[in-house]
Amino acid sequence: MRSSANTPYRAACDCRFRNQLLAKLSVRACPSLSKIQIRLHRASKSRQRLQRSLRTQRTTAAAATGLEGNETTSEGPASIELQGQSYRLIDLEGCEYLIARTAEGKFDLRDVYVHDKDLDIFARPEVHGELPEKPLYYQEVPWTVMYTGDRINNKMPWKRTEKMFLVEVKPPGEDMDFLLNLECIFELSHKSRDVRRGQVHKSESIDENTDPYETTLRITREGFHLQLLNEMPEIDDIVGAEEARLWEAEQAAARAKSAASVASTLGKDMEATADAVDPMIEGDASDPEAAQDPIDAMSENDFDGPDDTPAVDLGF
Predict the structure, then answer these.
(1) Are residues 43 and 187 in the same domain?
(2) If pLDDT is split at 50, 70 and 90, which confidence band does 18 have?
(3) Number of folded domains in the chain?
(4) CA neighbor of 198 nearest in space, from 171, 225, 227, 178
(5) In 117-213, where do the E strands start and end?
(6) Cα 166 from Cα 175, distance rounded (Å)
(7) Do β-strands 179-189 and 121-123 pair in parallel, antiparallel, or remain unpaired?
(8) pLDDT at site 168
(9) Nearest to 180 by CA among 143, 212, 220
């Protein structure tokens, strides 16, 4: 992710719970709100009233920094304005984040709610790491997982946004348009549903004299890595390594499943034959004249070759 003057915010939101959202947030934002007013919020079905309550606003890094940008998408409003406070809506898989936003377009991470879509409840998220003491501009970076589908097995394609990363955007200066502060990044996750400040691991090649436009931030499963552009691996190498990792994981799961199946089958056979042991093979293994179980009679030296070695091939 390189600093650029042409990276706008991506704005989208699911508004299936708009009336309930207004009612519940009204209670939180203004505890003294009367029950009559709350019922009016819930009962409001008028398109005109809804349009006055929910205002689709321009929420792009360009709008925040004075640069050109794109309007919000038609999937829903990117923000709501409630009791004089604007909240940015960030739609993730299973939940929504509501982040307080100033008139200038800055985000205040000290005022955040999480909306659970299934339970339809709102709660304050846990915070991990130090929050900024004042509202700041942020660039939104979505982490989207996509499945292209399988026509043979009749599996439909899908796409979901699991995380959203917020990277601080420094306002324009005399010598630059705007710049991303790659060392200040926050993570919003659909699983943990908290606000987590990322720990950025800086390359040893970067110092105070490094041109910020020559740096890039890599977001991986292992964390955040600030590197020089010339240190970045090739995209083919990254994709190849990920494909190899997924293949190894699939093979390990298949081997574990096969081993469990074999163990279950052997266990059932042993239980079925436990009471049907031929008494002729019972005896003292130390007595050469006594009848012995063939397995007990074997020594370690009896396995001379592959044909003599009992084994189960779990390879694929």
Answers:
(1) yes
(2) very low
(3) 2
(4) 225
(5) 121-123, 127-128, 137-147, 158-170, 179-189, 195-197, 200-202
(6) 24
(7) unpaired
(8) 94
(9) 212
Q: Given phi > 0 = left and psi -120 to 50 = alpha, else beta, which region is 290?
A: beta
What's the CA gap between 40 and 116, in Å, rounded? Answer: 23
Q: 177 with 275, same domain?
A: no
Question: What per-residue confidence (pLDDT) applies to 268?
Answer: 62
Max distance between CA atoms of the chain, in angstroms, equals 101
Q: Cα–Cα distance between 80 and 72 in angstroms, integer?
A: 13
Examine the domain organization and report whether 193 and 248 are in the same domain: no
CA distance 203 to 184: 15
Q: What is the mean pLDDT of residues 254-280?
A: 70
Displacement of CA 222 from its chain's centroid (Å): 13
pLDDT of residue 83: 80
The two beta strands, 79-82 and 85-92, are antiparallel
Is residue 261 included in any domain, yes or no? yes
- For the segment 166-179, the average pLDDT, to the nearest whole number, is 78
Quick: pLDDT tens for 100-118.
Answer: 999 989 999 999 999 999 9
The range of the structural domain enclosing residue 282 comes to: 244-308
Asked whether the predicted pLDDT for residue 224 surpasses 80, the reply is: yes
Q: pTM for this one?
A: 0.56
Q: Which two tokens stand for residue 71?
A: 């309007």
